[in-house]
Each structure stands twice: as C-alpha cells, then as structure tokens.
Automatic annotation (TrEMBL):
Pfam families reported in the protein's UniProt record: FHIPEP
One annotated GO biological process: protein secretion
InterPro entries: FHIPEP_CS, T3SS_FHIPEP
UniProt gene name: flhA
Source organism of the structure: Dissulfuribacter thermophilus
Keyword field contains Protein biosynthesis: no
Protein name, UniProt field: EscV/YscV/HrcV family type III secretion system export apparatus protein
Annotated Gene Ontology cellular component terms: plasma membrane
Protein's UniProt keywords contain Transmembrane: yes
Top-rank taxon, per record: Bacteria
Transmembrane parts of this sequence: 21-39, 45-64, 76-96, 116-139, 209-230, 250-272, 284-304, 310-327
Keywords on record: Membrane, Transmembrane, Transmembrane helix
Amino acid sequence: MAETTTLERIQGAIPIEANNLLAAGAVLAILIIMVMPIPAPAMDILLAFNFTFSLLVMLLSLYIVKPLDFPIFPSLLLLTTLFRLSLNIASTRLILLHGHTGIDAAGKIIMGFGQFVVGGNYVVGGIIFAILVIINFVVITKGAGRIAEVAARFTLDAMPGKQMAIDADLNAGLIDENEARRRRQEIARESEFYGAMDGASKFVRGEAIAGLIIMSINILGGFIIGVFQQGMAIGTAAQSYTLLTIGDGLVSQIPALIVSTASGILVSRAASEAGMGREFVKQFALNPEAMIVAAGVVAVFGMIPGLPFFPFFLLAFLFGTLAWVSGRE
C-alpha cells in the first residue's frame, strides 16, 4: 500500500499534459529519426540511450512482484521495437552514404562493435550476429509469446469463476462494494495485459527477421556503392561495409535481446510475493540439500582426468558454503 501511495505521489507531481506530451514526443522523435539524416555523434548518443533504456526495462521486470505492476509494458515493447527499427534505418543511411570514408562513418559505437567486440573479423561478427538473432527469434520471443498466449487463454477461461467468487464474498459480507469493484477491475486488467503481450511479442519476432534482411541489404548495397560509385577495391569495400553492417547489427540485436528477455521474465512470473532476486535467494535458502548435492556432483567432475580441477573445486566449495550457511539459518 505504501508503494502505491509513493507511486501516486510521483505521478501527481508531473502534470498530465506533460505526460501526454512526453509520449507524443517519443513517437514524433521516432518518426524524425526515420526520415531525417542523423549525424554520427548523434547516432552514438541514440544507440547508447537504446542500450541503457533496454537495460532499465529488464531491471524493472526483475524488481516488480507481478506482471500487472508493469501494465505499460506491451505498449513499451512496441515503442522500443519501433525505436530500434528507426535506428536501423538511420544507421543504414549513414553506412551507405559515408561508409567509403572509413569504419567510423556510422559513429564510434558501431565502429567499436565492429572492431573490438568481434576483433575486426567480419566472419566472426556474422556468426555472433546470427546466433543472437536465433536466440532472440527462436528461443526467447517464441517462448515468451507462447507463455503470454496460454496465460491470456487461461485468464479468460477463469474469469467467470473469479467473478462468481467475488460476488460470493460480497454477498457474504467478507468484502465491501469498493473492494469487489477493485477485484473485478484487476481481473479485467490481467486479461487485457496478457492479450496485449501476446500481440506485442509478434513485433519483436518480426524485428529479428527484419534485422537479417537489413543486414543483407547493407552488405550488398554497400558493396555496390563502394565499388561502382566510390571506386573502392573489391576487398576493401567488402571488408569495410561488412564490418560496419555487423557492428550495426550487434548494436541493434543486443538491446533487442535484453528487452525480449525482460518480456520473458515478466510473463513467466507467477505466484510471486517479492521481486525476482529476493524470490531466487529465498527458494535456494529453503532447500540447502539441493546445493549440497550440486556441490558433490561438481566436486566429482573436478576429479575426472582431463578436466580442470580448480574451477570445479571452487564452485563446489562455494555451493557447500552457501548450503552450510542456509542450513544454519
């Protein structure tokens, strides 16, 4: 109750008109990024903001207790997807127009991912990019979408029973009219939330496919522009535009993977009484026997010839210590 009061106090400090203008301004900014040329320094700022905001969304999904504590998440998922696609368009424009000037044509962040993260090897970068797309598309977004779909279906099927239970409590005098109204609204919000999450997850899956297509277009288009319009050597054009494209793809896919993970965490929360971190510690602390068995198995692995002893021994010692501390408490 205190958390709700604090939240309402924070929301009340911001005028409603300012909130509406902020949302409209965000959508307008996305459209501007799509159609207007963005200089490389501004591109670095936007990419850094995209990464930071995606990380913030995932951390929020870890700290909330139940999905309805983050009701704006489906709309936020759509807006972040559109924002990443607008950044893809802006970075593609920079790569194709200025890629012949050097690997820093699209900004320092894309150059850093193209050189440092993948070691300047575009084959390694392409493989890492493909792995990230597969993880995002096949594993996380598909699983999160399926969870949201099943949750929406079961929530909808359970609505009549929940409504009858509320009416029974109201008729028995266990709750008043205001509490009954609040519970009915919560049931409706829960159904709407999972239905919206089911639809919003489709946008993220579509973005993963779009990322592959955009990468192919960037490499092919950049090669044609570099060789036939800018007079670059074939090998130089292929390496330069491929590294730029791989860097751009990684900068886009990592925040997408973070947000997709946040959506999976959010829709998979069930019957929680605290944040995910606290629940995680609580569950392991209540079952020290599992950590003892894990420590024993890891110690056996460390004694197998050919396997390194120190990492397994260190983990066995760590799990054994945690189990001993949990057992004492």
